[in-house]
Amino acid sequence: MSEVVLAYSGGLDTSVCIPLLRERYGFDKVITVLVDVGQPRSDIERGNTRALKLADRHYHIDARREFVEDYLFPLIKANGSYEGYVLGTAIARPLIAMKAAEVAEKEGVANLAHGCTGRGNDQLRFEAIFRATSCRVIAPMRDLDLSREWEIDYAREHGIDVPVTRERPWSIDENLWSRSIEGGRLEDPYFEPPEEIYAWTRTPDASRPAQVVEIGFEKGVPVSLDSCRMEGMELIERLNEIAGEHGVGRTDMVEDRVLGLKARENYEHPAATVLLTAHQDLEHLVLSRAELRFKAMIDQTWSELAYMGLVEDPLYADVNAFVDQSQKRVNGSVKMKLYAGCAIPVGRKSPDALYSQDMVSFDSQTLSQRDAEGFAKYHGFQARLLKRKCT
Ligand code: ARG
Which fold has domain 180-349? Predict the structure, then answer.
């Protein structure tokens, strides 16, 4: 009896994979694994129902807490961003892959499948995890070189009712952190996205009054919203709603995929924008200049590893260790103003601030301004030497 475990989302690609794994690969049994990383509840329900109908056995794994604490918190601490992309899809893939691999191991199944194409990053992220097992890896979309149009027709023939049509062919990936939209006319980077692609954000509206929210951080991790302590998941969910109302967190960009292809990408991520902006602002209050400079390089390395799905590379643990050490003093809160698509820091405070109002103030006498004169004499000295203009 040949069996395969499929990482299943409930969308077009992975739904089409189920009959393909039977018809084209000859598997007798397809076991689907749907991992909950905070997608909309309706997607989870639809995915579960569809899997129960199409697959031989189905697992639904709630990994939301793990996703927040083991992936999103490190991301926030490292200001995770790849070319301006907040890394939503990227950061969830290793966890989804690990959960599917765990099911394969538990069920004693020697085959692992994913529904990623051969053009994107996700195949690499899944397989970086899958290939660490002894399982054979199967990628039907890539092997069979299928087009989305072919898939839509094939799905219909097999009674799979996916909400994708030739007119609205968007490929959407969602989790708690972000929603990404690809495909169809969006593949033309000059084509302006229609409002209908957005689901988490309202059209930015300057006539809507601004709103200020205060985010509290402890050790670099968000712990409260407007002084109300809450778990990361609830905080992110609430912020997605609040900031989404103000149209905060839309990205339309051209991104360099790992394979080297440039791709036009559209994202929505209201909470991510607010939290990353606030976190970075707080770091500027508490970290030293040298720490900020050095950490920017570490953050970039962290982000590239996360983008590539290389969370098992030993370097990932190394950079996380640095980041964690750097976050011990990232405590305090930041007031964020949400207005017309923008999230702007408008106030910050911290018990660990490296800031002295007394020293910097125009009105203070604590430090004598005259003391700076000696410093100023040396500053830029070499440039003046070159021009032989030393005073
Ligand atoms: N370009 C992004 C990434 O590589 C998003 C991919 C999203 N996938 C999708 N089916 N919409 O992480």
Answer: Argininosuccinate synthetase, chain A, domain 2 (3.90.1260)
Structure tokens at 120: 């994107």
What residues does each domain of the chain span? 3-174, 180-349, 357-389
8 A C-beta contact, residue 130 and residue 112: yes
Asked if the model's pLDDT at residue 391 lies above 70, the reply is: no
Question: Residue 366: which pLDDT band, with cuts at 50, 70 and 90?
Answer: confident
pLDDT bracket for residue 216 (50, 70, 90): very high
Mutating to test ligand 1, I would choose from 17, 87, 89 the residue with most ligand atoms within 8 A of its C-beta, which is 89
Q: What was the pLDDT predicted at 162?
A: 75
Cα–Cα dist 147/102, whole Å: 30
147 alpha carbon – ligand 1 mean position (Å): 17
Indicate if ligand 1 lies below 6 Å from the C-beta of 175: no
Q: How many CB atoms lie within 10 A of CB 343?
A: 23
Mean pLDDT across the stretch 217-235? 98
Ligand 1 atom closest to residue 182's alpha carbon, by position in its atom list: 11
Question: Looking at ligand 1, which atom is closest to the CA of residue 181?
Answer: 11
Is there an atom of ligand 1 within 6 Å of 180 CB? yes
CB 268 within 8 A of CB 199: yes
3-174 shares its CATH topology with 180-349: no
Q: Which H, E and C letters describe 22-60, residue by residue?
A: HHCCCCCEEEEEEEECCCCHHHHHHHHHHHHHHCCEEEE
Q: Quote the CA–CA distance of 212 and 335 in Å, as a whole number.
A: 6
CB-based contact 125:117 (threshold 8 Å) = no
Contact residues for 291 (Cβ-Cβ < 8 A; gap 6+): 326
CATH superfamily to which 3-174 belongs: HUPs (3.40.50.620)
303 lines ligand 1 (CB under 6 A): no
- Cα-Cα-Cα-Cα dihedral of 151, 156, 158, 163, to 10°? 80
